[in-house]
Each structure stands twice: as C-alpha cells, then as structure tokens.
Amino acid sequence: MTARKLLTAIALTALSFGTACTVAPHAAAPSASASAPTISPKPASDPTTQSPAYADPSPSDFTMKLTIKRRHCFGSAGCNVDVEPDLSYGGILPLDPDKTYEITYQINGDTSGPVIETISLTNGTSMEYYPSSLSTANSRTKITGKVTDVTETD
Fold first, then answer.
1. Residue 83 class from Cβ within 10 Å (0-12 exposed, 13-18 middle, 19+ buried)?
2. Are both 77 and 109 inside the same structural domain?
3. Where are the alpha helices (DSSP H) in 17-147?
4. pTM, two decimal places
5. Residues of the chain with pLDDT under 70
6. Is 2 in the same domain as 64?
7. Which residues share a beta bridge with 29?
8. Which residues fall in a compositionally biased region of kind Low complexity (predicted)?
9. How far apart are CA 56 and CA 53, in angstroms?
C-alpha cells in the first residue's frame, strides 16, 4: 500500500468515528525524517461551562409536617392552636438557588374548614412564612398540612 493510500485510509477511519483529521498531502513517498500525520480530535465539552440542571418542582416533591407552637384549650369549647410549617424537599434534582418559589399549602383541622397559606422559598433553603392560628373542635383534633401548588416567582 502506498503512503498516500495509507494516509487516506487513516483519514477515512478517523472521520467515521467523528474525529477531525488533518493530513498533509505528500508528493512523494515519505522519507525516514517525515513526520506522521497529525490527528486532532474534537475538543471534549468542558463540564465547567455547562449550566447545572435544576428541578422544575411540583407539589409531590415536597412533604410537610406542621409543628404546634402553642395550644390553648377551653374544655368543651375547643382549642386555639398556632402551627408552623416544617417543609422538606425530596426531588431528584436540586432547586435553583437563584430562584424564589411560592409554595402554597392547605391546613386541615380548623373548625371553619381548610386554611390556605403560602411559603416563600429562596436560595433553596430559606423559608419565609407566617404562623397559622387555628380553632379546633377539641384537643384530639388532628391537624395536617399538604403542599398544593408550587410557583416560580423569578
């Protein structure tokens, strides 16, 4: 096989693998001092320049417990209860720290019916909310909370 056919075969093989190949043409057969063909692979993408993947969270990615901060009961008249949300995120991808999420949740257990509240979540960890005051039928009333909606505000 001649040198030109060999270089052509190398170039075609490299191209079939998606690799860029630069071959200098030779007019005559290579001499002992001739350099080998230069093969330049495509540069691999730099992982530091790729933007990280963040979640598009849904209500099912969050679990909520309500912590009772204060309970004052009045016998058969029921109880006044103050609760605060304890929110956990369980999504596969992390939340974008540059975005703010409004997380709406429903509290059940108040004598007047469900109470709807909202948490503002920033930096993926910082929550801003107001405690909720409820009136329950008695001291045994179960108070529960569930996330119902997640909205990105930024």
1. buried
2. yes
3. none
4. 0.66
5. 1-49, 154
6. no
7. none
8. 32-45
9. 10
Tokens of 43: 């540069």
The whole-angstrom separation of Cα 72 and Cα 82 is 9
Same domain? For 18 and 87 the reply is no
Chain centroid to CA 109: how far? Answer: 32
Write out pLDDT tens, residues 85-102: 999 999 999 999 999 999
- State residue 16's pLDDT score: 44
83, β-bridge pairs? 68, 132
End-to-end CA separation in angstroms for the chain: 65
38 shares its domain with 92: no
pLDDT at 124: 85
pLDDT at 21: 40
Read off the tokens for 74: 């009045």
Same domain, 34 and 76: no
Structure-token pair, residue 106: 């429903």
Which residues face 76 on adjacent strands? none
Which residue has 């920033």 as its token pair? Answer: 122
